[in-house]
Amino acid sequence: MKKPTLLILAAGLGSRYGGIKQMDKIGPSGESIIDYSIYDAIRAGFKKIVFVLNRNIISDFKEVYEPKLKGKIENIYVLQETEKLPTGFTCPKNRVKPWGTAHAILAAKDEINEAFAVINADDFYGANAYKTVVEYFNKISLESTDYCMIGYQLRNTITEHGSVSRGVCMVDAENYLIRVDERTNIQKRNNEVRYYEDEGKWIKLDKNTIVSMNVWGFTPGFFDFLEKGFIKFLTESVNVDKSEYFIPLEVTNLINSKRVRVKVLESDEKWFGVTFKEDKEFVIESINSLVNQNIYPGNLWG
After folding, report:
1. Residue 187 phi, psi (nearest 5)
2. Structural domains of the chain ordered from first start
3. Kind of pairing between the strands at 261-267 and 146-153
4. Threshold 0.90, pTM exceeds
5. CA-to-CA distance for 1 and 113, rounded, in angstroms?
6. Are 182 and 160 in contact (CB under 8 A)?
7. How many other C-beta atoms lie within 10 A of the C-beta of residue 207?
8. Distance, C-alpha 35 to centroid of its chain
9. How many CB atoms lie within 10 A of CB 224?
C-alpha cells in the first residue's frame, strides 16, 4: 500500500479555550502540539499532511507551517466551509457553527487517494499511535472496508481543570467496534471518574474504559460513505441549530449496516490536550518531561 496521509482537523477556534489553541506554543523551542503530531507522523512513515482549516486562520497556518515543513513532508490546506453544501441544500442564514468532524473529513476528499489517519489538531496522542496505524494499513488493501481506531484508557485522557466529553467504546470479542457512546460532563470526583446524566445523577466509569480520542484510520472509500451520509444528515437536520455530523455517528451507522468493520487498537499512552487554558501548564510540563527523556529533541525542526 502507498504511504498514508495524516489528516489534521484544525478548523475549530477553541471557544472553551479562547484563541487559536492549535498554534499555541508549548514546546521548549516554541512548538505547538501539531508540531509533535507531524514529527511523530513523519517518523512513522506518513508521506503527506492535509490540514482542514477555516478561512479565518488559513493565512496564519501557512505562515507558520510552510517554512517548518518545507523539504520534510508534503503539506496541503483545505477549507471546511459551512455554506458549501451538496446540490439541493441551502445553508441557513444564521448558521455559524461548522457541520462537525465527519464533514471536516469530507472537505479533504479531493486531496486524498490513499489510506489516511484522522486526528484533532489540539490533542497529543503519543508516537505509538501513528506507528500502530501505519502497521495496520500495511496489513490491508486500499479497497478494504476494515478501518481502525486508536483507543485510550479513560484514566489517561482526563483533564484536572473541568469536564470533558468522551466516546466510550463498546467492542466485541475480537476488539471490533460495536458502537461509540458519547458521554458528556465526565470529570474526576472524589478520586473517581464519573459522568452526569440528564436525570440528575452521577454515574461511575471504570478508569480503564476504552475511549475514542478521534484517532481513526480509513481507506479512500470512506469518502463515498461520508458523501451519502452527509446528505442523509442534512435531510434530517439542516435546519436544526448547531446540529453536527460527527465521525462516530457515521461510523456507527456503517457498522450497524455491516458495511464496514473498525478494529480498536488499544494504546496505554497518556493523551493530553489544551481543552481549557488551565491545561496549558500541564501540557508544557508533559512535553518538557518527554524532551528530558530524549523521546523528542529540544528543537523538533532545528
Report:
1. -160, 165
2. 5-142+212-255+274-292 (3.90.550.10)
3. parallel
4. yes
5. 11
6. no
7. 14
8. 15
9. 10
CA-wise closest residue to 275 among 187, 148, 172, 153: 187
d(CA 214, CA 242): 20
Say how far apart CA 187 and CA 168 lie, in whole Å: 14
Helices then strands (H, E): number in the chain? 7, 13
What stretch of H or E contains 222? helix 222-237
pLDDT tens, 38-85? 999 999 999 999 999 988 888 888 888 999 999 999 999 999 999 999
**169-181 burial string, b = 16+ CB within 10 Å, else e?**
bebeeeeebeebe
pLDDT in tens, 222-271: 999 999 999 999 999 999 988 999 999 999 999 999 999 999 999 988 89
In sign, the C-alpha dihedral spanning 223, 227, 228, 232 is: positive
**Sign of the dihedral defined by the CA atoms of residues 293, 300, 11, 284, in that order:** positive
Q: Per the structure block, which three cell numbers stand in for 248?
A: 462516530
The 10s digit of each residue's pLDDT in 136-186 is: 999 999 999 999 999 999 989 887 766 778 889 999 999 999 999 888 778
